[in-house]
């Protein structure tokens, strides 16, 4: 029988659980570790990791008396959770007028992309906040009309597919090549990053995870076919490291003289190669860009994967050398 495993959490998952964990513990005094894990739908190891983050948090300036205290001896010995010096988290939150106003504006913006069940929560929160803002001695009415994000009009189709576990057919504009392509994807989640909306999905055409900007989606259709992996978790796209659609994962083999490129280009992985070389993985959206990079690093770099790109870059390099030799012979 296989042991039950819990998928790794993203940072937002852990923050959300920590914010709920402290009031839960304060209301009960002490809680057994396995009981807390069952309450939050995770395993004991994850709760223990959360607690080791928790005791490094607290009030500014972060001196020992400002931090939340976790009884590590009780945790490791009796497997019991006890926290102290966290009473301020149980007190009602008080917002300054400017803070409350900023929060209202942010919540109105969230309504543009919120799923129906989330939108209900946002609307209830807005009603309470706007009521509190208007209940002071000088009531003020705040009207917010947010500009819908580009691509917001296709959000209902995508959310429907995600909720039903259906695949999507996308016609997508690939900006790097100024062309359109059609592919079938397994949608996972929509994320708002800065001023744009993105779809995190598994792309069957690329055979890998991809991110699609919704304002570049020309057409989208919900299919009747189910996604290949219903349990796949959405990635956290807010960190800014994700790759756009139609990029290809390329592996370069670098000799020592070309290792400098890892400090100037965004790479996904670096590992030792044969004979003192370095194998570097990076996402590439343009074959021409890759050819230019390899020529710049020559003769200290070559493409090792995928094979078709390795051959294409090699042909380009040979053609460049042939052209140079013909030009040199003509000029001599």
UniProtKB/TrEMBL annotation:
Domain of life: Bacteria
Boundaries of every WYL domain copy: 154-221
Domain WCX span(s) in chain numbering: 247-320
InterPro entries per record: CBASS_pafABC_assoc_protein, PafC-like, PafC_HTH, WCX_dom, WYL_dom
Coiled-coil residue spans: none
Domain PafC HTH: 13-130
PANTHER family: PROTEIN PAFC, PTHR34580
Protein name: YafY family transcriptional regulator
């Amino acid at each position: 029988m296989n042991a039950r495993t819990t998928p790794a959490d993203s940072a937002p998952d852990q923050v959300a659980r920590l914010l709920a964990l402290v009031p839960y513990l304060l209301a009960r005094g002490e809680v057994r570790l396995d009981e807390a894990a069952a309450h939050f739908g995770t395993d004991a190891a994850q709760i223990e990791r959360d607690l080791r983050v928790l005791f490094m948090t607290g009030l500014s300036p972060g001196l020992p008396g400002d931090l939340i205290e976790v009884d590590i001896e009780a945790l490791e010995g009796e497997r019991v959770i006890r926290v102290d010096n966290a009473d301020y988290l149980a007190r009602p939150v008080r917002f300054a007028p400017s803070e409350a106003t900023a929060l209202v504006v942010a919540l109105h913006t969230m309504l543009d992309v919120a799923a129906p069940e989330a939108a209900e929560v946002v609307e209830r929160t807005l009603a309470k906040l706007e009521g509190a803002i208007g209940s002071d001695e000088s009531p003020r009415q705040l009207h917010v009309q947010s500009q819908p994000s580009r691509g917001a009009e296709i959000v209902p189709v995508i959310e429907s597919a995600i909720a039903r576990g259906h695949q999507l057919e996308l016609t997508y504009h690939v900006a790097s090549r100024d062309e359109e392509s059609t592919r079938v994807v397994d949608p996972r989640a929509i994320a708002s990053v800065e001023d744009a909306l993105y779809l995190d999905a598994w792309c069957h055409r690329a055979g890998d995870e991809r991110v699609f900007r919704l304002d570049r989606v020309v057409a989208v259709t919900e299919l009747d076919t189910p996604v290949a992996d219903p349990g796949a978790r959405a990635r956290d796209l807010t960190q800014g490291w994700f790759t756009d659609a139609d990029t290809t994962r390329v592996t370069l083999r670098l000799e020592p003289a070309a290792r400098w490129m890892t400090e100037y280009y965004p790479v996904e992985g670096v590992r030792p190669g044969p004979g003192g070389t370095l194998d570097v993985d990076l996402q590439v959206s343009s074959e021409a860009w890759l050819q230019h990079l390899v020529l710049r690093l020559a003769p200290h770099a070559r493409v090792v994967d995928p094979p078709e790109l390795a051959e294409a870059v090699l042909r380009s390099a040979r053609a460049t050398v042939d052209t140079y030799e013909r030009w040199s012979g003509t000029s001599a």
